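Quick start: read one record
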Amino acid sequence: MMRLLKMLFVLSVVLFGGYYLLERLELPTEDPIEKISNVVKEKKMQLGSKEAPEAEENPLEGSLFHWTGLTTDALTSEMGDPSRKDDSPYGYKWWIYTDQISYYVQFAVDEQQEIVGVYAVGEGFDVEPVSMGDSYSRVSEHLSFSEEVDFQDGLSSYTFHLGPEDLQKRPLAKVSDDLFVQAYFDIFTDQLSSIRVMNGDMLLSHRPYQVEYRGSLPEEPDFTDDKWTEIEDGKEQQIFDITNVIRHQHGRSALEWEESVSQVAYGHSRDMAEQEYFSHTSLNGDGLKERLGVLDIPYITAGENIAAQYPDAPAAMHGWLNSEGHRQALLNEEYTHLGVGVHRFHYTQNFIERLAY
């Protein structure tokens, strides 16, 4: 008789972040590079008006919690066409809806055109019985956060272990057998800043926590360079959009996309990934000042955020928001332009302040 082999592993996801600020510098004499803005089609947010379909063992009332399992037909019927569709390394596409100011939501759509997850930040989302901006204590009254969260998939079983920092910043709640809610908190304000809803397969693909399991895990992504470029382009755009929504939440002006700065940011992300280091200083000794100088980019002040091994753009953004130095860059009132560069799972944000002309 065949015997079932049971394997027990504990995996850890190591998340890194770094922040670097260039103090006020002498303004280069070259003419300023033309400002480039990315414009995403503005749509009216309609999530709050959606009727919740029947969902077994799902006690949450808000419509955001009931999209998982529905098809894209239901999504376009309610929300219209997305602003864009971004590739991901997990076998689904992100359908993006945003006005680039007050709200941002991305739906994970698998190959069967079924929604397997949702991430939302900003205003206008129905997440009853909680609300964006609620305190940790109020949210925890309705979502049962735990140090251990289980998921069963056929003969395979998984237990996610959350450490103290996980519980503080991004606790996980099991809503039903195949529905999970990840609540992202701003630890500086003690408020719910964004939220993610996902099924078990998506949670396993991301593996944002230590996981103990019997069975198997999804394979690591393996794509051609061209496919990775498409995925990385999507991540860069997501970080740009989410950054401006977060700045709007905190009363800051929106940043403009600067393509030349994005090239610098991408070069640093790729260099870190390929040379296997994590630092604001390149192995050749160059810092942000030197990297910007290669393209003769004019600026008054500049700053840099870096991150590595986060599963996607929203996760990296939340990591930066909850780190004091990164947060200062995200919310800096002087910065006017942003360039984002992503290579595989290395992320770089380069901020600059430009003179108004």
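Residues 1-14, 23-55 have pLDDT under 50 and may be disordered.
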